[in-house]
Amino acid sequence: MAEVNYICKRTVVSTKPVQPGKSHPLSVLDRLVEPSRHVMVVYYYRTDRSRERLGEVTQKLREGLAEVLTYFPPVTGRLVRTESRGSGEGGWSVKCNDAGVRMVEARAKGSVEDWLRNVDWEKEKRLIHWEEMYHKPYFWSTFYVQLTEFEGGGYAIGLSCSHLLSDPICATVLIKAWADVTLRGKMTSPPLFHQLPAHRPGSRTPNKDPFINLCSQRPTSTNQSATSSASVHGKHKTISLSFSDQMVRSCVASAQAHAGGPSPSPFEALAGLIWAVVSKIKGRRDGLVGLTMGLDIRKLLGLDDGFFGNCMVYSQIQPNSEENCLLAAAMAIREEKAKFEKEKVMDLIEWLEDNDGSKPTQQTLACSDLLCLNLESIDPRWAIFEDGSSPIQTSLYIEPTCDRGQFLVLPSPSEDGPLSRTVMIKLPRDEADKLLEDDLILQFAPTVLMGV
Amino acid sequence: MPPMLPDFSNSVKLKYVKLGYQYLVNHIITLTLIPIMVGILIEVLRLGPDELLGLWRSLHFDAVQILCSSFLVIFIATVYFMSKPRTIFLVDYACYKPPVTCRVPFSTFMEHSRLILKDKPKSVEFQMRILERSGLGEETCLPPAIHYIPPRPNMEAARGEAELVIFSAMDSLFQKTGLKPKDIDILIVNCSLFSPTPSLSAMVINKYKLRSNIKSFNLSGMGCSAGLISIDLARDLLQVHPNSNAVVVSTEIITPNYYQGNERAMLLPNCLFRMGGAAILLSNRQSDRRRAKYRLVHMVRTHKGADDKAYRCVFEEEDKEGKVGINLSKDLMAIAGEALKSNITTIGPLVLPASEQLLFLLTLIGRKIFNPKWKPYIPDFKQAFEHFCIHAGGRAVIDELQKNLQLSAEHVEASRMTLHRFGNTSSSSLWYEMSYIESKGRMKKGDRVWQIAFGSGFKCNSAVWKCNRSIKTPIDGPWADCIDRYPVHIPEVVKL
């Protein structure tokens, strides 16, 4: 039933030429990322097929994209290697050469509602276009957009981009700017391309150790083959659970240590819930499996909404609790989060800059860890391209998945309430099936959007 | 120091001598007539009215003689006015401005080239070197079908491009001139490389519902100089049909001609040709005399096709793999120079002032009789024209003409800037250049413009226009949004 026909592939360039000679250096947080990692987002929309012809919305969106790319020179640029400071290859930088982003246009049979009824990762992959880095990255586009129109009504926007340039939140910033320009003709928060904030030169304290168990997103050489083989063979399954506002509140209440104490945030509660359940499924009767948590530090550093680049820090939590329950998990997360203060984060950035050439002390994203990302700062109202038409569903992926699994906590696009959340979980196939039958999960009655 | 001053004063003296000579020769008739008129006037005043009357009576004219002579005068005047060729006015013209979404920056062009010609790195290198030295800018546009990876130049896309370009230009022309489609008497469309059935002129007639007794023509295969050939055809038709107007549409449809092989000489047009078109309204009606922008003064066409080398220098053929492309031969510049010389020899006597013609004649006689080693005198065309529109065929063409005609940078500015902003739009590039000059506010009443176009065959055509009324800025045209940024400095080689 669901067939996707690819119509064409082209390059979309900005409407105004870029000043020649511009380049965008990658920050230390950008450089921590393994080059093959990429972010993929899909947004689904409804349209009234009787009012809009097939192909009309594609053209409008493409013109809007050309407009908005004028403000994002690094997005239309290409990766080049800079001179290396020590031994080995130099780091990456983006040369803003005005080359454009690739865009694929496609048509699908049926309507968007039919598609969403039984969608999974395999099907969603067909709505997103991605190409692995070429041997010569100078001709490799870092951003790919696919616009799929459903013949029965509705359309899907698939954006994929290299994680070197943008984390998931940054990708949504681009989509927000695109939506603003298409709908209104101007952006509410223009993009900013500047370095991460640093201490003033005088108050730098050299060589302070990082305050957290910092994780870079590079797999170690021994684990790399294991990672790629797992994702290639499709041993993972994606589940998307939507927790309503009321259910999230009751989860928060369960994760509260004692009545009258500090109330955990929805992220802490839900992440704790998933962590506890996954640990149980993986066979840990007592205690929790290792978790690597990724937090957005934009608000912490006081950065504007339009900041472009990676701004997430990954820290490894080794819990010492003997219990395997929601409460313990939530508390462990809470403790880790509390460590994040502005000064300490800036020290961390400094430390990274000083140790840029050699990274022996950083641990790498070992496959023994579960990965969890807090993406609550993405506002679902950011992606409104047409009047009154907000996305009916959003999916977000970070590929390649690590062996153990990963889960992302996003706000829900529905009008349910401020605390409603969607959690996208990717686990090995058998574990994923067990997750859906777990009592603890069922207690909070989530709607299963994907993975049945 | 002493040596400096004499040189300077020498050159100044020479300049004044030259100016004096030119003034004397160009106004020789006025200068000889004035003393004669003054002499007669003084004589008449001296004689007084009575003596004049006496002089008149002594001639013994009677009524019949006076009547016959006046009839003779009237008869000669009528014959003269009847046989004078009709004045052709250019009422207005409109150039097509491509949408910004069709823009092709250098890096995108090179990337596509690399993706399509994956296993031919030498061809990609060659294209890159051409693009670096081409004189094009980052805002030139290619039609949508060429933006696809791989390009999809099918007939439907070609028709789509033709409709987009021609209809936009014509709508713009109708809006500027207030012309109603039903009033068009003659329609000429020229597009060299795309010639479908029914023709593009039929496409225009169908879209705008033109009259059934319209005289329509479609010129194809005539290269980049076809624009001026169409104007020449319109002029001839307007001599035959009184009180008519003619619409000329000049364009080049890029879609079907994107060369997909890897023969170097044929890859060149891919790098230079870009989307563009123009629609021009010509008229011979006296009522248009007031509002017309230009008047057509001369039209000179030179064809060097009789020479085999000239005939084969721009040749469309199949390469070794069977892919069709346009082969540009290495002696293109030399042949262009020859064709230009031929054209100048014909147009020179028509437009040059008497002083230049005299010098040329004297030098010619001198070379023939006295010493063949004298350098041939190249007439100074800057005295005959205020503005030059040289077809923006490529940087080499403009450089060559600038050298041959000894033009300054300002004279060729319109051509260079058109090449930079719009690329080589083939037959319509002359109109973009005219629009540039107008947008800069340089076009004043009485200015003479020389349009030169080269084309396959090998042809060199010239048109001379005289500005009818000063054109005030700002004008609505393809340069409206970017004229303030020009002129830009175009580097010899752009580093990619």
UniProtKB/TrEMBL annotation, chain A:
Protein name per the record: Protein ECERIFERUM 26-like
Source organism: Punica granatum (Pomegranate)
Pfam families registered for this protein in UniProt: Transferase
Ranges of biased composition (kind: Low complexity): 220-229
Gene Ontology MF term list: acyltransferase activity, transferring groups other than amino-acyl groups
Highest taxon above the source species: Eukaryota
Gene name of the encoded protein: LOC116188524
Region (Disordered): 194-229
Family: Belongs to the plant acyltransferase family.
TrEMBL record, chain B:
Family: Belongs to the thiolase-like superfamily. Chalcone/stilbene synthases family.
EC assignment: 2.3.1.-
UniProt GO BP: fatty acid biosynthetic process
Catalysis performed (reactions): a very-long-chain acyl-CoA + malonyl-CoA + H(+) = a very-long-chain 3-oxoacyl-CoA + CO2 + CoA
UniProt keyword annotations, A-Z: Acyltransferase, Membrane, Transferase, Transmembrane, Transmembrane helix
Recorded metabolic or biological pathway in which this protein acts: Lipid metabolism; fatty acid biosynthesis
Transmembrane among keywords: yes
A GO CC term attached to the entry: membrane
Domain Beta-ketoacyl-[acyl-carrier-protein] synthase III C-terminal: start-end pairs: 386-466
Molecular functions (GO terms): fatty acid elongase activity
Enzyme class: transferase
Transmembrane segments: 20-42, 63-82
CDD domains in alphabetical order: CHS_like
Protein name (database record): 3-ketoacyl-CoA synthase
Cell location: Membrane
Superkingdom of this protein's organism: Eukaryota
Residues the record marks as active site: 224, 303, 387, 391, 420, 424
Domain FAE: 80-368
